Amino acid sequence: MITELYAYLTNLPRWHIFAIFLIGYLIYYLIEVVKRPILAVSNGPFKKYLRKNIPILEMKFWPTFWCFESRAQTVFASIIRSNMMPNIDYRREVLTLKDGGEVALDWLETDCDSESPLIIILPGLTGESQAEYIKCLVMAANRTGIRTVVFNNRGLGGIELKTPRLYCASNSEDLSEVISHVKKLNPHVRIGATGISMGGLILGNYLANYSDEAKAILTAAKIISVPWDVNKGSDSIEQPYLNSMLGRHLAGSLCRTVRKYDILRNEEFDWDMDVVLQSKTIKEFDSHFTSKHFGYKDVHSYYAQATLHNKLHKIKVPLLCLSAADDPFQPLDAIPIKAAEKSSHVAILITARGGHIGFLEGWWPANKDQYMGRLFSQFFSAALFDSNNEFYRTSQLMMELNLQTSTSVPTTPISRSSSPIRKKSIPF
Ligand SMILES: *[C@@H]1O[C@H](CO)[C@@H](O)[C@H](O)[C@H]1NC(C)=O
Ligand SMILES: *[C@@H]1O[C@H](CO)[C@@H](O)[C@H](O)[C@H]1NC(C)=O
């Protein structure tokens, strides 16, 4: 018996080896990769509403079989979506801000009723309205009859920089102006907002810092792949080698953005553009440029101000967040699960896989209706059309809960840890 097994193993036909490998891979995939996402939310009206009205929350997330590793998801999602999403013919509006700066607002309202709901979308670090993940969301909204407007940050989307000022994650002044402007144009329409990655930080900071203004204008909000704890996120993206390659790619794209603008070069400025353009990581760039540009003492004070994980209790707009547990920009232990469970308005959906703005699913993910877009359109069509006023009533109950909980100020741990990223096992 043993000798026969030995003989078999030593003369294993090649296709047997292949089949054994494939079966092993399949078992691993089914047990370790396909998981039902976790929903971190307080036990209250928001949870009840989401569980009842957003069917995708109950389903397992099936990452693409041959591409579930986090960096692979991040990169392939971008490549595949770039190839399947045609450019969108937006109507461009150039908005002049209070200080004379200009931003481009790109509207998509084809065949939509002018009274139909509207979502303001904020792209990531150097993204603009033709970025593949933005088009994925814009099309998902368009399919459900919701209008969208993409807010391109200063200096992006092909708009010249009129004043020597760009944008940063901790400053929501521009967003506040844009949201008020959009509201003025659409006084009787329900408005939502979505931020992706750094756009999520800007939106989250807006919701926390301008909480009453936000509550008066926005019906619902969503945040995708945000680096909750910016310090931990920037440490994570510097880990060798694959993470740091992604980081270097983004740092390069930041340098290309600022290099274009002579208006940012001046002896009087606190930064030296020749040094800035040498930046190899996002943190170097923020240390040489962004933190000085916005008057912070150093990059750590900038990151401490930009970070979102300790501000959830200030938010008064129903906010659904999508984060992957394996996001290279976002270690799992930085996702504020406990704070979400104590908050009145924040729910975080955590998938075991998905990478950074990845969330690729299906055998060959050529389907335009991807996970990220499906969650987006299910949530916003429920919240913004709200034909039976259930979302409206839920929001009122959430405000009652907020008044009860806001009397007990939550303890916010100061986490400025420079310790190496802990690889906690995924609690699925
Ligand atoms: C948006 O949807 C409408 C149908 O409701 C369609 O006619 C239009 O082509 C869509 N726009 C884009 C850019 O896909
Ligand atoms: C918070 O909002 C106020 C206005 O309500 C603004 O003056 C202040 O600069 C904001 N702070 C940050 C950090 O954005």
From TrEMBL:
Keyword 4Fe-4S: no
Keywords, alphabetical: Membrane, Transmembrane, Transmembrane helix
Homology family: Belongs to the AB hydrolase superfamily. AB hydrolase 4 family.
Region of interest (Disordered), residue spans: 409-428
GO BP of this protein: medium-chain fatty acid biosynthetic process; medium-chain fatty acid catabolic process
Keyword Transmembrane helix in record: yes
Entry's transmembrane regions: 12-31
Residue ranges occupied by any AB hydrolase-1 domain in the UniProt entry: 117-362
One GO MF term attached to the UniProt entry: monoacylglycerol lipase activity
Cross-referenced SUPFAM superfamilies: alpha/beta-Hydrolases
Any matching Pfam family: Abhydrolase_1
Low complexity bias locations: 409-420
The protein's name: AB hydrolase-1 domain-containing protein
Annotated catalytic residues: S197, D327, H356
